[in-house]
Design a protein that fits this description.
The chain is mainly α and 337 residues long. The radius of gyration is 24 Å and the shape is globular. It is 74% helix and 0% strand. The protein is built from 15 helices and no strands. It starts with a helix and ends in a 5-residue tail after the last helix. Helix 9 crosses helix 12 and helix 14 runs antiparallel to helix 15.
Length: 337
């Protein structure tokens, strides 16, 4: 067997075992938690016969290992079952909520990187000066202030008082379903349809939650960028470059910053993954119909079909981000090849 095939097989087996373990752990924990998914369907005052009928129809009268095996069989065929709280197929629900979160998280990470990286570099270059203190203060606030409070204050000030941004939801109500659904991301779909009214409305609604999530990411990215840059700026090669008469800009961006790109790739991937699966509070405050809010609702009522499908999606997201990061390592640092 060629040497290049073995790492691929090992990696594929590792991914499969990781996802299987994640699903098994979530499944069995969900079954022992004090949730009653049947009561969520029929109500707490339903007759015992109705209760048992629904229990058998959902397969909950089977042993746990049989239930898990049936779920894996259905999952491999693309069938995640039906969500109790929506009545829809879980796969259909995910096709609607995932693009909404991807759109919000992507805009937020662009804002977070666009501000956090330059701020972190500037704080490192001007260490101990006012700009360094200002960046560290902004980072501290971003880590300390609850994001739901910032969201509520933002809605009061910029929506209710000033009217600069849109309110809750992804778009004004009279623009719902105004453009054909192609990607599920309203900004992209409205551009593809050439409908600028819908695009402006979607942009007004996404800008505030994206700015808040971007600010939270910026706080983390800027702090880590500052730490990485301080380490590089203290290296001997930087001193040598300065002695040779190279400009500060070339030393900072052409030498020191290039050596922190690999570390920054990891930080950005972690931040983006966190935004994709952890924007629950922001989605709740802004009534954003996204993945985080869907998963939280499923957890609250013990809807294990939806919870397991969401768990699988979260695991796949982080596995894919890790693979992309590994590829970036090989591109950014030839030594890793």
């Amino acid at each position: 067997m060629p040497r290049r095939v073995l790492p691929i097989l090992r990696g594929s087996l590792s991914i499969a075992l990781t996802l299987l373990g994640l699903l098994a752990l979530t499944f069995f924990i969900g079954r022992v938690l004090p949730f009653d998914p049947i009561a969520a369907v029929v109500g707490e005052k339903a007759d015992a016969s109705v209760y048992e009928t629904v229990r058998a129809r959902l397969g909950l009268d089977q042993p746990l290992y049989v239930q898990f095996g049936l779920f894996l069989r259905d999952m491999l065929s693309g069938n995640f079952g039906r969500a109790i709280f929506t009545g829809n197929a879980v796969a259909d629900d995910l096709r609607h909520v995932i693009p909404a979160t991807v759109e919000l998280a992507t805009v937020a990470i662009i804002i977070g990187c666009g501000l956090g990286i330059p701020f972190g570099v500037a704080a490192a270059v001007y260490r101990g000066r006012p700009i360094d203190h200002a960046v560290r203060l902004l980072s501290l606030i971003g880590h300390s202030v609850p994001i739901f409070w910032l969201g509520l204050m933002g809605l009061i000030v910029f929506y209710a008082w000033l009217g600069w941004v849109g309110g809750s939801g992804r778009v004004d109500i009279f623009y719902l379903d105004a453009v054909p659904r192609r990607t599920g991301m309203l900004l992209v779909d409205s551009l593809l349809a050439g409908d600028w009214d819908v695009f402006v409305s979607a942009l007004r609604h996404i800008i505030l939650p994206a700015l808040l999530l971007g600010y939270s990411s910026m706080a983390y990215i800027s702090r880590m960028t500052r730490s990485f840059m301080l380490d590089q700026l203290g290296q001997e090669y930087v001193t040598t470059a300065r002695v040779k008469g190279l400009s500060r800009r070339r030393v900072v961006w052409g030498h020191a910053f290039r050596n922190v790109l690999v570390q920054l790739a990891t930080i950005v991937a972690i931040s983006y993954g966190g935004l994709l699966e952890g924007a629950v509070l922001t989605e709740t405050v802004f009534a954003w119909p996204g993945f985080g809010q869907y998963l939280t609702t499923a957890l609250m009522i013990g809807d294990m079909n939806a919870v397991l499908a969401c768990t699988l999606i979260v695991g796949l997201v982080f596995i894919c981000l890790n693979l992309i990061t590994d590829l970036l390592y090989r591109f950014l640092d030839p030594r890793t090849r």
